[in-house]
């Protein structure tokens, strides 16, 4: 597959590696250990600017920012989540919730733990806060009162995976990332049958690409383990 769809699928697959590098459950993965030892050491992946190295590593660095489209953190140590850039306290990054404070902060790429002195959060600013900003700052401080820092590592949670209840076990899915990159969260009812079918992922992506190009009516049929799945297609050009 070539073109835009091929690039989006490639990005979604590369982002699976980004997840493996930040997920604490992957600690015993040999490839993860090698990449961490060679390129990261003790640095945080999402804040790392090391874009030199192998072609594979440069590819990871080029797409890693897109993982934030569906990434959230359950903060424990504050060593993985970036204070302003990541989703960890609210449903959106704090830089969007408190834009004036973000602009005034002198350390915009700090981790959550970098602002924690052991008892409370101390944010450095590069200029005095206005009266209005002081009120915003006090509101942020009240939000942070319920945050407790522990020794355990931060847990990544994948928000694009559907679930009836909130779960810390929601992990990265190449399928949901590809769908989001393709449709930006807009539900395509004509595609729902395709993604729910038992067709192999490669076929799902291929036919999804054909649908976006505008195919004529037809019928997809796939047989696996004695069970046949048929999907009627009717997509306008």
What's the tally of helices? 9
Helix content: 40-55%
Number of domains: 3
- Spatial strand order of the main sheet: 1-2
Count of strand segments: 4
Shape by Cα distribution: globular
Weakly predicted, low-confidence segments: none
SS-based class: mainly alpha
Major pleated sheet: 2 strands, antiparallel
Order of helices and strands: HHHEHHHEHHHEE
User: How large is the share of residues in beta strands?
Assistant: 5-15%
Termini, distance in Å?
20 Å
Mean pLDDT, nearest integer? 79
Radius of gyration: 21 Å
What this model shows, in words?
The longest helix is centred in the N-terminal third of the chain and has 20 residues, at 3-22. With 237 residues, the chain is mainly α. The chain has three domains: 1-68 and 174-186, no CATH class; 76-144, no CATH class; 187-237, no CATH class. Strand 3 (218-224) and strand 4 (227-233) form a beta hairpin. The strands form two sheets. It has a two-stranded antiparallel ribbon with strand order 1-2. The chain has helices at 3-22, 30-40, 55-63, 94-97, 99-104, 131-144, 174-183, 189-196, 201-213; strands at 71-74, 155-158, 218-224, 227-233.
